[in-house]
Automatic annotation (TrEMBL):
The lineage of its organism: Bacteria, Bacillati, Bacillota, Clostridia, Christensenellales. PROSITE patterns: OMPR_PHOB, RESPONSE_REGULATORY. One of its GO terms (molecular function) is transcription cis-regulatory region binding. The modification 4-aspartylphosphate is found at residue 52. This is Stage 0 sporulation protein A homolog. Keywords: DNA-binding, Phosphoprotein, Transcription, Transcription regulation, Two-component regulatory system. It comes from the Bacteria. InterPro entries: CheY-like_superfamily (IPR011006), OmpR/PhoB-type_DNA-bd (IPR001867), Sig_transdc_resp-reg_C-effctor (IPR016032), Sig_transdc_resp-reg_receiver (IPR001789), WalR-like (IPR039420), WH-like_DNA-bd_sf (IPR036388). Residues 126-222 bind DNA. It comes from Guopingia tenuis. Residues 3-116 form the Response regulatory domain. GO terms for cellular component: cytosol; protein-DNA complex.
Amino acid sequence: MAHILIADDEPKIRAVIREYAEFEGHTVTEAADGMQAIECVRQEDFDVAVVDIMMPRLDGYSACKEIRKLKDIPIIMLSARGEEYDKLFGFEIGIDDYMVKPFSPKELMARIKVVVSRHQGAAGQQDILEFGGLVIDMPGRQVKIDGEPAKMTPKEYDLLFYLVRNKNIAFSREQLLQDVWGYDFFGDDRTVDTHIKMLRSNLGKYRSHIVTLRGMGYKFEA
């Protein structure tokens, strides 16, 4: 079972999530604002964090950035706004999932299960692969380019590791959304293109390993 951090300034929402989470056997810690959430992460280890965007003292986006500096924790973001820009910005700073209020607590529990399972599975991989000067350390969740660590968001790591584990296999954008994000994305599939663009930028001269398949999607070519 998972240890869940719930960061939301609405007590009723925290109470509902806690009720469903504890019913499924999870442990819950609550935070009423972004600053409190960061302090919780400093003091405890969590399997996943559910973070609202609009919170006092420190908003959800800023809280997520600070949490990422402290620990590699999967993050599901909550928001009353469902605009594509908000979702894409969230994914760009490294969140793992995004839900729009009002939401189904049962669906949130399902997404928590997927995110935690995916994160634990990635951590359990025992592969360290080398492609010339590109070294991909899956258990350490680290990528080195000619000996220097690359700086990537957690979702970029997830996407790269997935493509590398399935190297030379072609994937459509829809397949990548389903397998890497774990659910059907609300909107179009441009979020995959956005993450591929950022990933290629971070890979530098090794960007050519990620091949675009016109009219379909992408693959990692070894």
